Amino acid sequence: MRMSEFVLCISNEGNPASLIVGKVYRRLPDPEAESHNLLRIVDEDRSEPEGYLYPASMFVPIELPERAKRALMASAS
Q1: DSSP run (H or E) holding 70
Q2: Rounded distance, CA 25 to CA 19, Å?
Q3: pLDDT for 46-64, tens place per residue?
Q4: Would you say residue 76 lies in a domain?
Q5: Structural contact between residues 58 and 19, judged by C-beta atoms closer than 8 angstroms
Q6: Is 71 a domain residue?
Q7: Would 40 disulfide with which of 19, 30, 57, 72, CB 3.0-4.6 Å?
Q8: 58 lies in some domain
Q9: Which domain holds residue 40?
Q10: Is 41 part of any domain?
């Protein structure tokens, strides 16, 4: 099963400055991290374009309409 390109944050425990509960984040592909139940996320810091690793349990995958995906991608630039 292919993981969604976007995820919804459901917990920011230990990372309140980096993640906002209820916010949609972009997930970057990282098969090795995912094999360890981690996700590579472009978080609030945005200083690291390669994203940061967070436990997968802090997010749920979501599917967005194309228009919403385009808007999120544009705001990430």
Answers
A1: helix 66-75
A2: 9
A3: 778 889 999 999 999 999 8
A4: no
A5: yes
A6: no
A7: 30
A8: yes
A9: 6-64
A10: yes
